[in-house]
User: What shape does this take?
Amino acid sequence: MDVTVNKPACVGAGQCALVAGELFDQDDDGIVIMLKPTIGPSDEATVRRAATLCPARAIRIAE
Amino acid sequence: MPSGARSEVLIVGASVAGLSTAGTLRDEGFPGGITMIGDEDALPYGRPPLSKQILSGEWPIDESALCTPAELDRLGIRLVRGTAAVSLDPSERVVTTASGDDMRYGTLVVATGASARRPPYGDGLGGVHCLRTRADATALRADLATARHAVVAGAGVLGSEIAAGLRKLGLAVTLVGRSPELRLAQAGALLSPLIARLHREHGVDLRLGEEVVALRGADRVSAARLSGGDVIETDLVVAAIGCVPNTGWLSSSGLDVSNGVVCDSAGRAAPGVFAAGDVAAWTDPATGIPARVGHQLNAAEQAQIVARTIATGAVPTAQPVPFFWSELFGTKIQVFGRCDGVSLDTIAGDTSSGRFVAAVQRDGVVTGIVGWNMPRDFRIARERVGRPAEGLDRSRQRVH
Ligand SMILES: Cc1cc2nc3c(=O)[nH]c(=O)nc-3n(C[C@H](O)[C@H](O)[C@H](O)COP(=O)(O)OP(=O)(O)OC[C@H]3O[C@@H](n4cnc5c(N)ncnc54)[C@H](O)[C@@H]3O)c2cc1C
Ligand code: SF4
Assistant: This one.
């Protein structure tokens, strides 16, 4: 699964870090950071959930 | 009605609420057609940067886009831009557009948001602006080149952000607010002293408890008269005096649009009709009172609830918790939950350092969290909402 984060779109709401703290964190400005360079199959559902919850649609999944 | 139309979802309004509805429908596996119509010419975009990075010139205007045409294609979402809906017949399930087309639907989602409230002064005068749309932002940016002094009318969060943005650009700024306090979303006046301090530290001339009553100028504004009698020379006026829900097109629909589109607590306005975002007034199950909320995350969360209800038929139980953030002079302010309490108890950082997280409590329960330049600690503290307030560190100072 190919996941990218669109930092300019990120509004720092932290939804991603709240539901998938092992995959996403926020920098000191609250902007999303991806913690893992690649997303394995076991993380896919979690990523999808974070992407869905992200109010800015800043987490993009390309299949 | 053409067969199959009942599986079609029509979304009116192509912004955060509309796009989140469409995206979540697909995430939930909705197989039917999705059409979204919006009266703006631009692709769906986010408004928050308009008063922040775009006003200050840090971002080009296109950075506010929320999606690309390719993404819409991939998700199978048909977007009709530059087209306004002008009426709705909910019994026939038909929306009529300005170009006279009748669009039939199975389920309708009203996501037409709100428009800036126009001020009663300055009609036809140059240099007078509102800020709600990309077009507004472009016009305001174009007018900045020659401006030296700005009067910002309205001391809510948008007025504060615009004042901060214009200061950053080097303009002299007078911020005029009718109420004696600076208000910030659901935190109300709780943060007023801190926000007032930020403005003053950055050289904003704060005029609280006053109003702009009239403007002077030949072609372009040259001065603003305040209710207190002062006349302020200015070449730019930005009115941020609230917004009104876009329900005009629903006036003959029979829907209750007395204060936005009145809905039950799951966004249902009528059989086959939902509403989400700034246009919607969902009923609070606790109080039974419908209320509009003007924040982006609320728009996205309501849209997700509506989309799930449409896609799965399951009626949601969770209510969105209000969340709001803003940025003033580089200070990131975040508010989660309800903050109608009277005091703030700091739980991380401290107010004098300009970085803190604080809890608001009511009847011994944490109802809201305020973050001030500490986004990560704020996020962790959010989990305290709804829990007993006992855990709060009583030895920490109170904000006021
Ligand atoms: C300058 C600015 C800064 C903001 N900053 C923040 C912030 O920092 N944090 C925050 O949480 N919120 C912020 N907000 C509020 C946030 O932008 C709104 O809550 C959000 O845009 C609501 O989304 P929506 O989709 O419900 O409505 P809107 O964004 O208002 O979109 C509705 C869309 O429907 C269209 N439309 C209206 N009538 C019709 C019709 N009859 N037919 C077709 N289309 C129609 C409109 O043109 C518009 O494109 C800000 C708002 C502004 C204006
Ligand atoms: S949920 Fe989206 S907007 Fe919020 S921090 Fe994560 S990426 Fe940014």
About this structure: Helices of chain A lie at 15-19, 44-53.
